[in-house]
Design brief:
Number of helices: 2
CATH topology: 60s Ribosomal Protein L30, Chain: A
CATH class: Alpha Beta
Distance between the termini: 15 Å
Shape: globular
Strand order of the largest sheet: 1-2-3-8-6-7
Order of helices and strands: EEEEEHEHEE
Length: 126
């Protein structure tokens, strides 16, 4: 099976030893995205809703670079430093996804890189 590294300047560049995504056959593994603005590599200004939107925008950019869209996401993992923001994730997610929704997990964590409130990764099937 072939392995292709996915890169785009429309999403934040990797800030560690990882790729934005890896495509294996028709499956794409999208690395975790935090609310970094791609052009500045700085955290987005604003509340948790703006952070969540930026994360979905970043995931969307990587999905497009891999030849897909968020509609192709089969599994989404959401990491939150405060699980009380889960309802905001649902609200914003409904603007980026439509039925049938992907499988999903929401996990409460103690902290995330750059003090982000949210991080998400995904698995996409093309």
């Amino acid at each position: 099976m072939s392995r292709e590294i996915i890169r785009t300047d429309q999403a934040p560049q990797a800030i560690g030893t990882y790729s934005q995504a890896v495509k294996c056959g028709t499956t794409v593994y999208l690395s975790g995205q935090i609310p970094l603005v791609p052009e500045t590599m700085e955290m987005v200004d604003g509340d948790v809703e703006k952070q969540i939107r930026r994360v979905f925008d970043n995931l969307q950019a990587v999905a497009r670079a891999a030849g897909g869209t968020l509609a192709d996401v089969a599994k989404l993992n959401v990491f939150l430093t405060d699980l009380s923001h889960f309802s905001v994730v649902n609200q914003v997610m409904a603007e980026y996804f439509s039925e049938p929704y992907p499988a999903r997990a929401a996990i409460g964590v103690a902290s995330l890189p750059k003090e982000a409130a949210v991080e998400m990764d995904a698995v996409m099937e093309l």
